[in-house]
Amino acid sequence: MEKITSLAKRRGFVFQSSEIYGGQSGAWDYGPLGVELKNRIARNWWKEMTQLHDEIVGLDAAILMHPRTWEASGHIENFTDPLVDCKKCKARFRADQIPPECVSEKKCPECGGELTGVRKFNLMFKTHIGPLESNDESNIIYLRPETAQGIYVNYKNIIQSNRMKLPFGIAQIGKAFRNEIVTKNFIFRTCEFEQMEMQYFVKPGTDVEWFNEWKKRRWAYYEKLGVKMERLRWHQHGADELAHYAKDAYDIEYLFPMGWKELEGVHNRSQYDLTRHTDYSGKDLQYIDQDDGNRKYIPFIIETSAGLTRTLLMLLCDAYDEEKVADKGNEDDYRTVLRFHPTVAPITVAVLPLQKKDGLAELAHDIRAALREDFATDYDQGGAIGRRYRRQDEAGTPFCVTVDYETKENGSVTLRFRDSMNQVRLPRAELAPRLFQEIKTYKRTK
Predict the structure, then answer these.
(1) What is the pLDDT at residue 185?
(2) Residue 307 — φ and ψ, nearest 5°?
């Protein structure tokens, strides 16, 4: 993880928030390469969920919601973690993430000092809306701890405005906030993060079938992203792990540097959420099934929920490689490379003139201008060509185009492939079609 963190800062993927003031714990800023990677992950997920499914539509709900929303959802009552503090070193721990004997003996796992008793810690950020703060509850509001509730409270609006019929889904990408007891492991657990969630509404009695179907679909998605599948596994929630709303739940776990951790959840949320919002709002959220004699019922909900920023960390870890290379006149025998799938790589193709002089730089700029409409491009003319290849490898750029004197003579360029470091010569006119084909047929080999 230290290597990932170092690379992320050095190459402009992720910076510590407010670093010049000592940093803000639990918050991170995404630099030029990081925001491009994040946006491409989001677009890939959005395409997978909406463009490729006629029955799934999108939503962008507000972060601030009526406080009763969180009473209905159970967050005010149940969204807590067990907290203990060390009286000696002042360290803070989640009681369920330290050895049980430390809790029972009230012994700090760090310094051996005395621990406080376990108390509940609500993870929601509470604030006030309006110009005045007061001690009463009338103007309290919360930063949303998840994006799902915005989907549930709009479910009837979407049925009516888009004439949706079961089964159908609503997808959303947005920020959420959790006042975590402990933030650690770089961007894995933070107070401010982004979620990619899809809630799939189904007829009662079909929920198990659709639950299993979405497990298959979400597993297949990571195969499409080129993730090393041996680093993924399923974890079913036991009776002591199930959330208060869940009938069944599985996590897709990834083998991060710090061990197996949750990447995405697939949950059968039963009828809990819509039933609760019906009770608390007084509004009828039943679905009228016109294909079943206008029968009324509350749908079951199958949820797929992934962290956008956690997915970014997973892809950084999965793509990271240090490789010993053959002697090809390189300055060293090793290279650091990020083997991103071309569809998520922050830079798709870099254009590199062999020299700055003799019109090669101008020609390279012209080629880049022709490519940038369809591809994320970069231009680099500084230093030896081998060093520039290494910089692009570190950024995860899958393709480099070298412009040299032969380009001036016959219009051909050299196309270099990141993973194999192989090179081919081809006419400039064939460059864009070749890139499209390489992206379409890309298969990770290392």
Answers:
(1) 84
(2) -85, 125
State residue 327's pLDDT score: 55
Residue 57 CB: number of other CB atoms within 10 A?
Answer: 16
- Asked whether the domain spanning 329-440 has the same topology as the one spanning 2-63+145-315, the reply is no
Q: Where are the alpha helices (DSSP H) in 130-285?
A: 148-162, 207-224, 272-281
Q: CA-to-CA distance for 300 and 274, rounded, in angstroms? A: 9
Residue with structure tokens 């079938």?
Answer: 209
Secondary structure of residue 54 in the 3-state scheme: coil
Q: How far apart are the first and last CA of the chain?
A: 20
For the CA atoms of 414, 417, 421, 426, the dihedral, rounded to the nearest 10 degrees, stands at: -20
pLDDT score recorded for residue 121: 72
The answer to whether the CB of 69 falls within 8 A of the CB of 140 is no
CATH 3.40.1190.10 fits 2-63+145-315, yes or no: no
Do strands 349-353 and 377-379 pair parallel, antiparallel, or not at all (unpaired)? parallel
Distance, in Å, from the CA atom of 259 to the CA atom of 429, rounded to the nearest integer, reads 47
Position 228 scores a pLDDT of 95
Q: Are 346 and 356 spatial neighbours (Cβ–Cβ below 8 Å)?
A: no
The predicted structure's pLDDT at residue 287:
96
Hey, is 418 helix, strand or coil?
A: coil
Show the low-confidence residues of the chain (pLDDT under 50). Answer: none
For residue 202, give every residue at least 6 positions away whose Cβ sits within 8 Å of its Cβ, in sequence order, or none.
166, 167, 210, 299, 300, 301, 302
- 253's enclosing H/E stretch is strand 248-256
| Cα 163–chain centre separation | 30
| Sequence-ordered strand ranges (E) for 67-190 | 80-85, 92-94, 119-122, 125-128, 140-143, 168-177
pTM value is 0.88
Contacts 24+ apart (CB under 8 A), 327-333: 328/421, 329/386, 330/386, 331/384, 331/386, 331/387
85 phi/psi in degrees, rounded to 5: -120, 150
Structure tokens of 375? 């591809």
Ramachandran angles phi, psi of 141, nearest 5°: -145, 160
Assigned fold of 329-440: Rossmann fold (3.40.50)
Strand partners, 301: 201
Contacts 24+ apart (CB under 8 A), 249-253: 250/215, 252/218, 252/219, 252/222
- What is the residue extent of each domain of the chain? 2-63+145-315, 329-440
Q: What is the SS3 assignment for 120?
A: strand
